[in-house]
Specification:
single chain; 2 domains; 8-stranded antiparallel beta barrel; Lipocalin; mainly beta; about 280 residues; 11-stranded mixed beta sheet
Length: about 280
């Protein structure tokens, strides 16, 4: 009877140890939100050279990416298809599992916690950095609200609201007669050129003047306007307020003719910053 009791206790202890292994394998000082702001080039969808990045680390070791809310400038968790996870973190060594196309990969990195700072070194690109302790909802940069909505083949889509760089939709004034509308959606992007801008009004979207992109993990599928009159964009800009509002619609085609489809973008609306 005594031996049976000992066996039961051992089995129970083993189960308890197994169930709590994730928590025990991860340094509890890592739990919480950590962010940093670095300076990058202004190429791409955002005109800002400030990039916010960081991690929300759970007690199970899950590392959710952090970004910033465009309307408030506050820290928030970003949506992501791929989850990074700490498998083990003790005594300055961290084993991280992450998605490295086309497979899941592991990497060993070094980390240090000094007061409210987390320093991660010698790992894959975006995990490295000198991060500051924070909380979801803390305002860290000036807000820059942007709003763009569109129906793509009848399905409603909006610009991303939480991102590493904001705004995610804006008008870029490249000259007195040239404007570009750029927007980043979830897995998609839109660009419209107005080459003959003379002020508020409605403009024809001609051949090659607008693009719609579908963005995958390792590819970009591009569609462009292919007719001299592929759509229209109405726009009204206020330079004093540095804002533009308007509506748009256009039809696109695959320039390589690899895909037998012509995405239709309609009922588009935007209220976005004007970057001069």
């Amino acid at each position: 009877m005594k031996n049976a009791l000992v066996l039961i206790l051992l089995v129970f202890s083993g189960c308890q140890l197994f169930e709590s292994s994730d928590t025990e394998n991860v340094d509890p000082d890592l739990f919480g939100e950590w962010y940093m702001i670095d300076t990058v080039s202004t190429s791409g969808i955002s005109p800002s050279n400030l990039r916010v990045r960081g991690w929300s680390i759970s007690s199970e070791g899950e590392m959710a990416k952090l970004g910033v809310v465009d309307s408030t400038g506050s820290i928030a968790v970003m949506s992501s298809s791929y989850q990074t996870k700490i498998l083990q973190a003790k005594n300055g060594k961290m084993i991280v599992e992450y998605y490295g196309h086309p497979d899941v990969a592991e990497d060993e990195v070094e980390y240090r916690i000094i007061s409210d700072q987390l320093i991660i070194e010698n790992g894959f690109g975006h995990i490295n950095g000198n991060f500051q302790k924070t909380k979801v909802g803390n305002e860290i940069i000036s807000p820059m609200p942007s709003n763009l909505q569109i129906k793509i083949d009848g399905i409603e889509a909006k610009n991303v609201k939480v991102a590493n760089r904001i705004p995610t939709a804006y008008i870029n004034k490249t000259s007195e007669s040239s404007l570009i509308l750029l927007a980043s959606l979830e897995g998609e992007a839109i660009m419209i050129n107005i080459d003959n801008y003379t002020g508020s009004g409605t403009y024809t979207i001609g051949k090659g003047q607008a693009e719609y992109q579908i963005i995958g993990s390792d590819y970009i599928q591009l569609f462009i306007t292919f007719l001299d009159s592929s759509g229209t964009i109405s726009i009204d800009c206020d330079s004093n307020a540095s804002r533009c509002v308007g509506e748009f619609e256009f039809t696109t085609d695959d320039p390589e003719n690899d895909i037998d489809t012509e995405p239709i973008l309609e009922d588009g609306f935007f209220d976005v910053p004007l970057i001069e």
